[in-house]
Amino acid sequence: MLIGRFFSYRSFSISTCHFTKSWMAKHVSDPYVRRSVKENYRARSAFKLIEMNNMYKFLEPGHIVIDMGAAPGAWSQVLVKEVNARTNKGKKTQQQQQQNELLHPSEITSLHKPNPDLKCGIVIALDRDPIFEIPGVHIIDDWNLTEETTNDCNKRLQDLLNRLKINKVDGILSDMCPNVTGCKEIDHSAIVVLQRQALHFARRLLKKNGYFLCKLFQGQETFQEMRSLLESLFHIVHLVKPSASRYQSPEMYLLAMQYHADSSDISLNTDNNNQRIETKRNEIEKLLAEARRIRTKKNDK
Ligand SMILES: C[S@@+](CC[C@H](N)C(=O)[O-])C[C@H]1O[C@@H](n2cnc3c(N)ncnc32)[C@H](O)[C@@H]1O
User: Fold this and answer.
1) Half-sphere exposure (Cβ direction) of 140: Cα atoms closer than 13 Å
2) Ligand 1 mutation target, pool 35, 145, 177, 217, most atoms within 8 A of CB
3) In a domain, 284, yes or no
4) Known catalytic residue: 215?
């Protein structure tokens, strides 16, 4: 069963052909992969977040957090525990517990019970890819940050926030990664562009003193630019390379804490509002022009 679980995640795709004997040998002997299977995390990435939080203690019970690029869901699994999110203890889960073999690993994690003596937090997971249900997590998949305005991503998120009565959140985490091409320059620029967009998104929703955690690839000027940008918006910025992050990988994390929110209260619908205001303004301009034309015509008669 243990070995079977190595194959059960979306991140492991035989069809995408990253599957070689040596890759497999490395993968199954990786201590973090083994630990993730043992501790029912969907991916070894869980340990990166655990480690960063152990270092800087930014996650707290009661926090409202958004996990961007959350699939397959390992960070969200960690977040559920750290913010003490409410999990559903419905009948279905109990029945499923009896048939342990059929449980998705996330359901096993649901055995984590929220502590009633601590504040309860909320976890929202967003990704363009599907995410299996995680007890305690509000999931919006088929959500693409770069196509936010072209499909109904914004609306679905805003509806969820309204339903949960959330105006601002304590933290936004972005482990998002664009499809890598193998060309260092392109990949480095692509991830910076993506994370800049994530930051723009985060600024609309972050509370004062909130935190933003994002993944980047180190080694290019653009990395330094992103760091400076974060330093201008947050009081503290840490550069972290958790030991669970593979040594050969250029991936690094920037953890920005204590957001000093500027007074521009950027709401999720700002872009739409601006567009609407612009359209209205154009309509009014047209009506005024028409009125002027009619008046001049009358005067000419
Ligand atoms: C490294 S994985 C995240 C792993 C996750 N933190 C975990 O622990 O399970 C990166 C994710 O970013 C998502 N992603 C990349 N670009 C995106 C975009 N424009 N909008 C939404 N999700 C995106 C991918 O679909 C992928 O699932």
Assistant:
1) 20
2) 177
3) no
4) yes
